[in-house]
Write a structure and sequence with these properties.
6-stranded parallel β-sheet
Length: 314
């Protein structure tokens, strides 16, 4: 594939639901070819959130460094727009070094925004956000969700009543422009194609039961590795609270509620596993929208070698 300036540089998107084998496969590819990993994971961007995000350990990162992990504090917010800018910068740096970007993760919104861009919406308004936060503190986010439903039912229908970050943004956009967020998205112009020859790979077990078993096993491993202590350490920081995007992440939200005494350890484990399975279901639904993706079972032996051979032939 070429453009006006000649052949396009290659890049690989390796997508899949949680616990599908993405990281293991990516590392095997890095060990076999000139690839460098860019993480596409909304949890791994946070420092001090290691166990619950299944962040690769130090030994793994030494074998296969990952870009865009540990880049912000859990008290900060990170948007899809920020990810796109960061990912494009890292892709350009990897390509300039003569290597091939390998974007790996399960945050499907980030992949979509990377490929399609974002609507040209207004910038954040700190004063309005403070006003919305103050109103939410008095009325609660479910009431703010009802307020959004009155002016933008399409957006409200896809958001949970306690999704404070996205509710705030949707209300902010409407207040600033008088136009619902859903309308902004509907009127979005197609993004300019990325200057790369893209290969899209989706990994997922052919049977949902296999993925469910992996999710249960991995969550138990996280608990054994000290997930509760990790969340307790974060909870002890006065600037962190349960409504932050970082603390609403799957696993962290359930352990936080357990530490608050909302339920016992056994219930926390069940809720954490269930929430992770629901996340995987949403990720799988998103994946179906990537029509160019080549589907594979991430648990297959020799998959990295076969993918590399197919890629070299393409």
């Amino acid at each position: 594939m070429t453009d006006a300036n000649g052949p396009l540089s290659p890049a690989i998107l390796l997508m899949g639901p949680t616990a599908s084998g993405k990281t293991k496969l990516a590392i095997e590819l890095v060990e076999r070819g000139p690839f460098e990993i860019i993480s596409v994971d909304s949890g791994m961007v946070y420092r001090d959130m290691n166990i619950g995000t299944a962040k690769p350990d130090a030994a793994t990162l030494a074998r296969a460094p990952h870009r865009l992990i540990d880049i912000i504090d859990p008290g900060e917010r990170y948007s899809a727009a920020q990810f796109r800018a960061d990912a494009l910068r890292e892709m350009a740096a990897i390509t300039a070094a003569g290597r091939i970007p390998l974007l790996v993760g399960g945050t499907m919104l980030y992949f979509r925004v990377l490929l399609e861009g974002l609507a040209n919406m207004p910038d954040a308004d700190p004063a309005l956000r403070a006003q919305l936060d103050a109103e939410a503190a008095l009325r609660g986010w479910p009431a703010m969700h009802a307020r959004l439903a009155a002016v933008d039912p399409v957006t409200a229908a896809r958001l949970k009543p306690n999704d404070s970050q996205r509710l705030q943004r949707a209300l902010e956009v409407y207040e600033l422009t008088g136009k619902p967020l859903s309308q902004w998205h509907a009127e979005q112009a197609p993004a300019e194609a990325l200057p790369y020859r893209l290969t899209q790979i989706a990994v997922a077990p052919p049977q949902r039961s296999v993925l469910h078993e992996r999710i249960e096993r991995r969550f138990d491993e996280m608990l054994a590795q000290g997930l509760v202590a990790e969340v307790a350490g974060l909870k002890a920081r006065p600037e962190l609270h349960a409504d932050l995007p970082s603390m609403r992440a799957v696993g962290y939200a359930q352990v936080w509620a357990y530490l608050d005494g909302e339920y016992d350890a056994a219930e926390m484990r069940l809720r954490g596993i269930y929430a992770t399975r629901q996340l995987a279901k949403r990720q799988h639904t998103w994946l179906r929208r990537f029509e160019a993706a080549q589907w594979h079972d991430g648990g297959q032996d020799g998959l990295a070698d076969r993918l590399l051979l197919d890629w070299q032939r393409s």
